[in-house]
């Protein structure tokens, strides 16, 4: 069962320092553009199937753990038992590939032990962990205290991709395999290191403490409540949003 997403805070990225705005990089599109520049109109691209060609080594993916910037501080003291926590990850530089791959991150929970989380990273621009099922209505009325910082996850690709073009031109074969390292484009963040191609998924992490106790709650002006509510949208129906159980 998917937990309800709190959507009012999705625009937190506007309140933290933004380093770059590169969007979502499509690896398949990069391969298509590479082939088009050298051989003609692309019929097929595959990172996992050689379609009968020789000298084939399918592309594999390696993913590092999430790295938070060194001065990233957590809010560790809760005001009372009615305070809960929310975790947000917003990817400013994300990836769309034919692969499924995950990353690991360790976060503190409720002044207790750290929790290890794993979430899908491919084709993801937003992740939320809402363990206490905090609702939008409660969130818009509650007092919040948060800390934000930048993060990065290094994703590596090794191997080859297959291509087929509609018509052969000159000496270029109609079908062939190309090492993925030749998709290097430093302007887009694709960096070759040895026999691998790397891309850093980067963005902002937010750890938010939400308190609903009336003794500590600051009643928001109606205009602010209306403003928060106006930000709502259905994240569960958005394919690149992940709500962790």
Automatic annotation (TrEMBL):
Residues 221-245 are annotated as: Disordered. The keyword Signal applies. Residues 1-20 form the signal peptide. Keywords: Signal. The keyword Signal applies. This is Putative da-p36 protein.
């Amino acid at each position: 069962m998917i937990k309800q997403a709190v959507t009012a805070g999705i625009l937190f990225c506007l309140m933290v320092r933004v380093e770059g705005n590169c969007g979502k990089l499509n690896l398949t599109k990069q391969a298509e553009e590479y082939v088009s520049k050298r051989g003609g109109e692309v019929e097929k691209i595959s990172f996992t199937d050689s379609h009968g060609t020789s000298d084939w080594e399918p592309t594999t993916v390696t993913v590092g753990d999430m790295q938070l910037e060194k001065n990233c501080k957590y809010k560790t003291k809760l005001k009372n038992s009615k305070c809960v926590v929310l975790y947000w990850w917003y990817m400013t530089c994300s990836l769309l590939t034919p692969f499924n791959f995950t990353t690991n991150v360790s976060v503190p929970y409720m002044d207790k032990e750290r929790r290890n989380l794993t979430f899908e990273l491919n084709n993801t621009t937003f992740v939320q962990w809402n363990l206490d099922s905090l609702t939008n209505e409660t969130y818009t009325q509650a007092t919040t205290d948060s800390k934000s910082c930048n993060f990065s996850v290094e994703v590596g690709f090794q191997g080859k991709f297959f291509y087929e073009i509609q018509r052969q031109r000159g000496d270029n074969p109609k079908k062939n395999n190309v090492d993925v390292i030749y998709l290097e484009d430093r302007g887009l963040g694709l960096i070759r290191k040895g026999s691998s191609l790397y891309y850093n998924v980067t963005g902002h992490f937010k750890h938010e403490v939400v308190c609903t106790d009336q003794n500590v709650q600051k009643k928001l002006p109606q205009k602010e409540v209306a403003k928060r509510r106006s930000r709502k949208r259905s994240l569960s129906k958005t394919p690149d949003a992940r709500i962790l159980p």
